[in-house]
Amino acid sequence: xxxxxxxxxxxxxxxxxxxxxxxxxxxxxxxxxxxxxxxxxxxxxxxxxxxxxxxxxxxxxxxxxxxxxxxxxxxxxxxxxxxxxxxxxxxxxxxxxxxxxxxxxxxxxxxxxxxxxxxxxxxxxxxxxxxxxxxxxxxxxxxxxxxxxxxxxxxxxxxxxxxxxxxxxxxxxxxxxxxxxxxxxxxxxxxxxxxxxxxxxxxxxxxxxxxxxxxxxxxxxxxxxxxxxxxxxxxxxxxxxxxxxxxxxxxxxxxxxxxxxxxxxxxxxxxxxxxxxxxxxxxxxxxxxxxxxxxxxxxxxxxxxxxxxxxxxxxxxxxxxxxxxxxxxxxxxxxxxxxxxxxxxxxxxxxxxxxxx
Length: 357
Description:
Number of strands: 8
Helix content: 55-70%
Order of helices and strands: HHHHHHHHEHEHHEEHEEEHE
Distance between the termini: 62 Å
Radius of gyration: 31 Å
Low-confidence stretches: 1-6
Oligomer: single chain
Mean pLDDT: 84
Largest sheet: 6 strands, mixed
Strand content: 5-15%
Number of helices: 13
């Protein structure tokens, strides 16, 4: 039974789980918004119909009172961006619906018939829109406890409460199955979409970002660094005598060197750094938050680490150009061009060295 509450496969890492939750919130926000609007109009219709069907000691205006906060919650759901915001709004909607159910059912003869539709409808209708396990469990608890005031304060006896509990168990089990099925389908769709995006934006040989994707993300990272008033540096790296390696030992040897170079680059970077294959044996590394001295130290560690990679004719070496952003407004193209120029100077000075622009 516990497996029904698990929407993400156990093998998923925490970052993937967080990314999936944000992905789900983005995709489900219009659905949640629409369902909350339906809940508003459905509640107003049900409250009006109950007033026409039988008299109650609770005035109609009070029974319709939850409709206004329900409408506010639905409007906020259309603008919410964070998963926890959508979860809290959905839980608020359940609370308001349960309050309204009590207002419309209390003090009525045979109050249980007013409870049964909500007992089944609210858990099942909301099964697919919960974004995480915690909000689903909280929602089911609210659905189960919500009608209790009406049952305890009304005229329902034990013979009436027992069928309610049976209906409640059936509704929650059905909601659990529906949620598990929908969430797993959504996770598979998310995983496939993510895989396709990675294939479209990464180099098939090295697994690093392709030039266009690297430039796109680098512009965003530089804008963020400018907003935070932080420095940024670019490393432009080129494998030395790579054409000679291909000519003397074949392209397979060159590909093997590039494949080995990629993890060496990743090992010298932080989570916020960007690595891209600019073309051929040339690579770009954007280091947000580092000044020129720090970037030069990082480049030196990288140059030394590359020596561990062996090619048929000796250790692999690289020439690296380092450029720091001159001003917060300097465009990416200028920063990349200065790092490229410094790299070419490093090659002209004898290769296997670092030159700062």
